[in-house]
Structures are given as C-alpha cells and as structure tokens.
Amino acid sequence: MSGAVPWNEARAQEIIDAHLGLEGPALPILHAIQEEFGYVPEAAVPQIAQSLNISRAEMHGVVSFYHDFRRAPAGRHVLKLCRAESCQSMGSEKIAREFLERLKLEWGGTTNDGSLTVEAVYCLGLCAHSPGALFDGEPIGRVDGDLLDELASEAQKA
To answer: What was the pLDDT predicted at 158?
Structure first.
C-alpha cells in the first residue's frame, strides 16, 4: 500500500502514546497503526495490549473482530467492494464472485504481482448508486464486471 512504512516498534509506541489520552483508545490506535504501516503487524498486538493494560487475547479479539484491520500488508492499491443489502440487491455478490475468480483471489487477497488487494466492506453509503466500491479511498458507484476489470488493469500499470 502506498505510503506505508516498514514496521518499527519505536514508531508504533509513539503512535500508541499519542492516543492513550483518548476515551476508548483501542480502535483509534489500531487505525493509526494500520495507516502508518499499511496493516496491523502481529508484533503490535502485545505492544498495544500492554500499553492499554489489557490481555493480548483481548487485543487480538478486537483486531480479528473488525474486518477493516489487515493482518498482512495490502497491495499497492486497495479495492473495497460493498456486500451490504442494497448492493446485493443490485447483483454485487455475483459481480464480486466472478471478479475474484478472474483474479484467482479470495476476499482479502492480493494479486500475485502485489498490485491489488480486494476487500469486502459492509456499507459505503452509496446505496443510491449500488453496487458501490472504493478504489484507493475514492467512491465508485454502479460497479460492474467491466469496470472492475478496468480498475484491476489500472492497478497493474501504476
């Protein structure tokens, strides 16, 4: 993922310390760690747990519960496909399944060349333009197979 830096325990601690004063800091810390490193490294879990004075199991539970947290680095580009009801009613499941098959990926997988990671999300608020997606954080409505193929091709070139 562009902008992500290699794992650094000292930098992670700076991020954790910057968020400790917040009420309920676990999720903001996790988001900030992922923003910095591109994912939540396994080494971050006990470090965050210790700083929050909770067990590693509790912290692992938080990380694994939320779909938005990656456990491995993402590709250079990230495509998030909506799987919520409105998008499903407009054929998103079939479109996504066929697209993933063409890429030979499962949900959360990254292409062999590292160009694209495809993730599921469960509502983007684009219901009036279903099916919806985010490509590198940019919303896209009325997604179909051809558009997804174009995005995959664009990701390979960049």
So the answer is: 79
